[in-house]
Amino acid sequence: MDSTGWTVPVSKQSRVLAPSQAVPRYVGNLGLRWTGRRQGHTSKLGWKAQPIDDFSGAPVELNEPSPASPLWSTSGDFMKVQLMLQRGGLMADGSALLTQESMLELTSDKLQGSLANPAFNTHAKDVAVSAGLHPSFGVGAPGQGVSGTAGATVVDPSTSRLAGTAGSYSGVGCDMTEYWNDPLQELSVFVGAQLFPFYALPELRQELSAIVYASMLPPAAVKFYQGPEPAQQGGMMMNLMNAMMMMSMFAPASRM
């Protein structure tokens, strides 16, 4: 992973993708920014994307990163991590990086309960128009748990708000970076969108998964698949898929 670190060399600064933010935003007492009027996750969304004016690029290798500095990486580098997990902790050359016990700790449900329980998860009280409503929070989803990857895992696909088969695990990072692994389907997906905050497009993964999983249909079943309405084809999703292809080809650095 030679393109991952807390700083970005001067020679690679041109690969850093400038992030955007969802506005209007709110600056709370702790300096936190939200898409709605309040910090309590009760505001309606209704926002537009706007470039972050004060973004000056990633910290360069000559500077010490701050304690709050995010990890900078590329889609190619992060996919190496995902594929290592997908192989059960093995590197591409077959050498073991993680034990089976570590893999179980990282990828299985640690909650032994439900994220939909408001006595445990304060986000379970979020409403459908909430600025804090992101599928990883498991709001109203008894089929989700928490994995050791600091993300969510699908326990019961029929009641999970995250798309994937049972045992799928995922994680989100700064500015809408998100990944998920579906071991049953041997599927690894990474999204490197750069929009703050990460929950500004809460259903982005679900929209992408509709395309990803539909692409796995056997040819004889494709004609029976009910895809997007003609008026919805192309547009944002087509642009997003094209952007993802470009990101995979040129691997710009993004904040994790």
Instruction: Note the main sheet.
Output: 3 strands, mixed
Average pLDDT, rounded to a whole number, is 75
Number of domains: 1
Give the overall silhouette: globular
Give the termini distance in whole angstroms: 14 Å
Helix content: 10-25%
Structural class: alpha+beta
Strand order across the largest sheet: 4-1-11
Q: So how many helices?
A: 5
Order of helices and strands: EEEEEHHEEEEEEHHHE
**Segments where pLDDT lies below 50 for 5+ residues?**
27-44, 230-252
Gyration radius from CA atoms, angstroms: 19 Å
Percent of residues in β-strands: 15-25%
Features:
256 residues
Summarize the structure.
The protein is an alpha+beta fold and 256 residues long. Helices cover 20% and strands 16% of the residues. The chain has helices at residues 75-86, 100-107, 204-214, 219-222, 235-250; strands spanning 20-23, 26-27, 33-34, 48-51, 72-73, 144-146, 152-154, 169-172, 177-182, 187-192, 195-196, 254-255.
